[in-house]
Every structure is written in structure tokens, then in C-alpha cells.
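comment on this one:
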Amino acid sequence: MLEAGIQQLVVADAGVQAIIGTRFYPVLVPENPTYPCATYQTISNAPSYLLEGQPTLSSMRIQVDTWSGGTKDATYLAAKQAQEAISEVLDLFKGTLPDGTRVAGIFVVGSRDLYEQDARVYRTTTDYQIFVYPDAG
């Protein structure tokens, strides 16, 4: 599964590990997390169709959020450092993910910075477009 391959690729990187360790979660930040951390989720996964033959590439978008929170130690800088480290791994990646998914390319399509007042957390959001080769089977 592509999402598992992305998660494995990101947490294996030494730069990411130095900032968030292995705290890269699907969809939700767990209760009482250690910050900074990050989450990922699928934004769209539209199949590719052709009138004849097999598609050569399919694409999907994922969103990666980085978080720095807490009542004492939330910093914008920590969220931005995590965002940058993850982007260093994903942006312009091409090759095979640890789960075996063959990737033609991953590209940043947009990012934004947020602060969630009620939760007292800084958050960055980065959207990635991922082009993958169809399964050989």
C-alpha cells in the first residue's frame, strides 16, 4: 500500500528521525502526543482510465501535516523544521518505496501554515502529488 511505503520512507530518514523520530501517524495525532510530530492522509486517489490499453501512470494526492503543540513548548519553528525535513525526503522523489510501490515522481503542489488556538498547536500542511506505475499483476 502506497501510504505504508510513504510512512516507511519518511521515518527511515536520519533528518526526519532527528526531529520527529518515528512520530509520523496516519490521519490523526494520538492523544497526549510528544511534539513535534506529523500525520499523513490521502486527499484524492482517482484511477486513470484509457479507452484502450493500460494506463502508464496513476496519481494520488496526500497531505502531510506537521504539529508542534502543548501549553509550554509549542513553537512555529519546530513545526516548520519537521515540514522541511519531510519535504526533503518526499519532494522530487522517484524510485521504489520500501513497500515495493514504483514511483515515477512526488511533487509538492502547495503548503500553508496554521495555528489552532483551541488546541494550542502550530501546524503546517503540505500537499503532494504522487505519480505511480500500475501494479505489474
Q: What stands out?
A: Residues 2-48+55-132 form a domain with the STM4215-like fold (CATH 3.30.2000.10). The chain has a mean pLDDT of 91. The beta strands are 24-26, 37-44, 58-69, 95-96, 102-116, 121-132.
